[in-house]
Amino acid sequence: MSAGPSTGSVPTAGALRHVLSHLVTPLLMCIGMGLAYLGAFHAPEPHDLRVDVVGSGASAQVLAQTLQDKGDGALSVRTVADRAGAVDHLRTQQSYGAYVPGGSPELIVAGASSDTTATVVQKVFTEVAAGQGEPLRVTDVAPTADGDPTGQGIFFLLVAVSIGSYASVAVIGGAGAVLALRIRVALAIGTSLVVSLIGVAFAGPVFGLVDHGLGGLWAMAWLYSAGILLIGVGLHTFLKRWTTLGVMLLFVMLNFTSSGGIFRPELQPGFFGSLHAFWNGAGFVEGVRSHVYFGGYALGGHVLVLALWFVAGLAVVGVAGPAEARRRREAAARAQAVEAAARTHAVEVARSAAGAEEEMEEAVGV
């Protein structure tokens, strides 16, 4: 009677251990997402945020120095001689706000750089104008498209393209594991083309996130998606079931949080701000902003970031190829060894059977 439960408990215990071991991955994702998103977004505070005060007289100098001292590292305040120079700084993203003092004070911003940054700057200079007893007039010299009033549509486009890319890695690496690496690479390139076209459809005709420059946006979306897919397909050779966690770390946890799509690096902790300089999500977001809203200023640097991630994907795939070939050779050698051992065993069994037959014949006197 007691044999039944004990026999059934063995597979149950094994299955439970199997499930628990696989639960490690989503729990690590939970921890990673919490650390990344809350670490990057929970308490945005400006640091070294560049703003200009327009004017060359003593009053402008005093105001700039007062704001600099009062900010205690939050602002980096400079004076600029005239309004045209301040606008040029905004349109080349050298500053994120310009205050023109006087009887009718004006704040000039470039909303396409970052809506949240413009909001922070507006809050600062609204208080300055209020201290002078005047209302503040705000002028946006780089407004976003009508379909993206908050300026964050590009970030959510980044999310869509990223999910389409890294989720495809799991399919190509898992369901396509039996395929040759060159076929998986071709699937990755083809999938990135489809994902980028979906992204362009969202950005243009579906939601109107941008009103021009769709060709350049497509090129950057393809380069971005292809880099993710190539890196993911290559990593699957080495990480296996941990690939999903690996690509989420690279292209979600560290990527979305450092992209500048919600908060620019001047409003984030230093770690995420430093990633902004070379991570692929930042390359895409800032590249699209530059292409669509800022006349292509510094676009080459952002495209270079995307291209280097694409090259990194090719390099990872290039390393994965020889590794897979070596594993196939080792597997073939093991199979041959098993086959040889089986043949040897069969010969020994045959010999033993023959010897036993001879002994039997002798015993019965045949």
Describe the structure in your own words.
The protein is an alpha/beta fold and 366 residues long. Residues 1-7 have low confidence and may be disordered. It has helices at residues 3-41, 58-71, 83-91, 115-131, 153-174, 181-206, 214-239, 243-253, 255-258, 270-275, 280-293, 299-364, and strands at residues 49-54, 75-80, 98-100, 106-109, 137-140. It has a five-stranded mixed beta sheet, with helices on both faces. Helix 7 packs antiparallel against helix 8 (243-253). It is built from twelve helices and five strands. The radius of gyration is 31 Å and the shape is elongated.
Observed structural traits:
about 375 residues, alpha/beta, 12 helices, about 5% strand
Query: How far apart are the termini?
Result: 51 Å
> How much β-strand is present in the residues?
5-15%
User: What value does the average pLDDT take?
Assistant: 91
Total helical segments: 12
Structure, briefly:
The chain has 366 residues and is an alpha/beta fold. The chain has helices spanning 3-41, 58-71, 83-91, 115-131, 153-174, 181-206, 214-239, 243-253, 255-258, 270-275, 280-293, 299-364, and strands at residues 49-54, 75-80, 98-100, 106-109, 137-140.
